[in-house]
Amino acid sequence: MRTRSAILLPLLGVGLVAVAVVAAGSGQVGVPPAEVVGAFFRGLGIDLGPMPTHPQGYNALWAVRFPRVALAIVVGACLALAGAMLQGVFGNPLAEPAVVGVSSGAAVGACAVIVAGISVLGSWTVAVAAFVGGLAATAVVYALSRSDGRTEVVTLVLTGIAVNAFSFGCIAFLIFVADPQAREQIVFWQLGSLNGTTWPAVYAVLPLTAAGAFIAVAVARRLDLLALGEGPARHLGVNVERLRLVVVLAVALLVASGVAFTGIVGFVGLVVPHVVRMVAGPAHALLLPASALGGALVLLAADLLARTAVENAELPLGMLTSLVGGPFFFWLLRRTRSRQGGWA
Amino acid sequence: MVATTRRQVAALLGGLAVVAVLAGCAGPPGLAAAPSATGADLAIDGPASVRIGDDVRPITDRPEPVLPVTVTSHDGVPVTVSSVDRIVAVDLYGTIGEIVFGLGLGDRMVGRDSSTGFAAASAVPVVTSGGHDLNAEAVLDLNPTVVLTDTSIGPIEVQQQLRSAGVPVVFLDPTRTLDGVPGQIRAVAAALGVPADGDRLVERVGGEIAAAAAAAPDGTAPRIAFLYVRGSAGVYLMAGPGSGADAMIRAVGAVDVGTDIGLTKPFVPITSEALIAAQPDVLLVMTHGLESVGGVDGLLRIPGIAQTPAGTHRRVLDVDDTQLLNFGPRVGEMITALATALYGRS
């Protein structure tokens, strides 16, 4: 177990870079890996390796492919990191970002501006509305489940379910009043996609991801203590209530910024931490960074599949992650049950 | 309990009242419908398909673009086009591609949308996936010298990506109206360096529209409703003001029912009762939409449709999905075809 966990992070890192190079070279404008590397360094002002032979190769890489690969990495890391933290703070294998209402809240925000036709912030309106909606829904879930300065885990989860149900009602209403074009936009937003990613979107998400990752590093040890149970953790000096608040806040930031530009991408936040936990064990100091890398890897691969699987068509990203993630999770469940008689 | 019963009785009485009104309005199926003031003027008697030729007639065989030109894109940005050797034209309706072919520059198109579907364009590669989604890579792979597009297709980030990759991207007006056709044609012609050909194309289209309008007989105008029907899920919307269908219906001298009954939006979900009350003489639908509900017989099974004059006489006109509302250079032909189907002469 120890050697496995020692090589896990380097392995994931190398895998991520390799898949990133392949992903950046694949698509309608074909560019071999060596030319991808050459174009990448040329963009940074370094002459190294061959330049793309396709007349639009260099432009395609820097204007279309690189920002897309970068955002896939960032969003994948966000979602998986958020899932890992939530599962830690809830001590519950079911926890995923959707539980605190952030995904459905983001969807309500996005749908509302699509239907109302608001575009005060140009093409960023939907992203900003989704981000605000996600944060707002999480705030509502947290506020409603708090009483006497305490939040019970079960109350929090149930409140999340209630807020999610309300959000879906709002979305249903918005779909009802929308005109056909807006309706189509809503449907596709909820399916998730990285098509049309620009550098500014990456720059906007990156600092929020960094903030979330910083919080993750800061709380990793306390999450380990919390795994002993709330009582023992409190005796060991952990302010459980504040830890919970900080983690929920970090998750809201990570997920809301992640889905703002991509739409709903399911299951990455649920499945990736579970897989990592099976390999690396439950210690958060390793679990959190490994989940982030793993999430980035999964989403990058999923997006590569989404845009290359069918000629000249773009498969919805959220559809792919759910189609693959669902059965995989089921298999994981059966396997864990037969080996350990249930979740560890 | 008593209250509930009373409410049920009231509902029942209300229902009976509606049935009585319906019977008074449309009469039972099989009998003649309430006489339409215009029945005599309409040649259409039963379902018909409105079709136009599968090709765009170019205004010239040898266009001579004068380049470079600098035009102001619809988003306010000046764009310089220095070559029209490799044109990509994409929008939701296929309008821009049709104009490019109308200007005689079709052989220089290297990329199109899925709505630009006429025979001459079928060999040009499609760069959209699933109709609405533009794919930056597919466009870049064609190494275009100019991209003509509008905001009806997106995501807008894709067009921005193309621009940042150094491709001249000219945005055009995304609204599709009959009145906007000349401006649309002139804008495309200007961006491609053939403004004189654009003027001649505008002149030709204007003549066709005027000729079709003259075909409408005098007397009370027929009432036509454009219905957007799709699938068996009961999705049907009536077109109202601003839908484009209203302008096409007016262009053949008819009354747009959606506008007439006071709809305020381009497409409105409509109830069976409102449809019966609207009493359209003719229904206009999209060909694929009609197929998706099971043809005219399927359409008549949608509650409310059989109870209109259009339903009782099976006066259903279907028109190709990509042709009715694209407002390109074939709009004159389209209006002529509509008038012919309605009045039997052009």
Q: Could you give a short description of this structure?
A:
Chain A is mainly α and 344 residues long. Chain A is built from 13 helices and two strands; from the N terminus they run αααααββαααααααα.
Describe this structure in words.
The complex is a heterodimer of chains A (344) and B (346). The two termini of chain A are 16 Å apart. In chain A, a hairpin with a 2-residue loop joins β1 and β2 (150-151). Chain A is globular, with a radius of gyration of 21 Å. Chain A is built from 13 helices and 2 strands, in the order αααααββαααααααα. Chain A is 76% helix and 1% strand. Chain A is mainly alpha-helical and 344 residues long. By secondary structure, chain B is α/β, with parallel strands linked by helices. Chain B has helices at residues 2-26, 95-102, 136-141, 156-164, 181-191, 195-214, 245-251, 257-260, 272-278, 287-292, 295-301, 309-312, 331-343; strands at 48-50, 69-72, 78-81, 87-90, 109-112, 128-129, 133-134, 146-149, 169-171, 223-230, 235-239, 255-256, 267-269, 282-286, 316-319. The longest helix of chain B has 25 residues, at 2-26. Mean pLDDT of chain B is 85; it is low at 1-37.
Topology:
The complex is a heterodimer of chains A (344) and B (346).
Chain A: H1 2-25, H2 33-43, H3 57-90, H4 102-116, H5 125-145, E1 146-147, E2 150-151, H6 153-177, H7 180-191, H8 199-226, H9 230-235, H10 240-262, H11 268-280, H12 284-308, H13 317-340
Helix pairs in contact in A: 1-2, 1-3, 1-12, 3-8, 3-10, 3-11, 3-12, 4-5, 4-6, 4-7, 4-10, 5-6, 5-10, 8-10, 8-12, 11-12
Chain B: H1 2-26, E1 48-50, E2 69-72, E3 78-81, E4 87-90, H2 95-102, E5 109-112, E6 128-129, E7 133-134, H3 136-141, E8 146-149, H4 156-164, E9 169-171, H5 181-191, H6 195-214, E10 223-230, E11 235-239, H7 245-251, E12 255-256, H8 257-260, E13 267-269, H9 272-278, E14 282-286, H10 287-292, H11 295-301, H12 309-312, E15 316-319, H13 331-343
Parallel strand pairs in B: 1-15, 4-5, 4-8, 8-9, 10-12, 10-14, 14-15
Antiparallel strand pairs in B: 2-3, 6-7, 10-11, 11-13
Helix pairs in contact in B: 5-6, 6-13
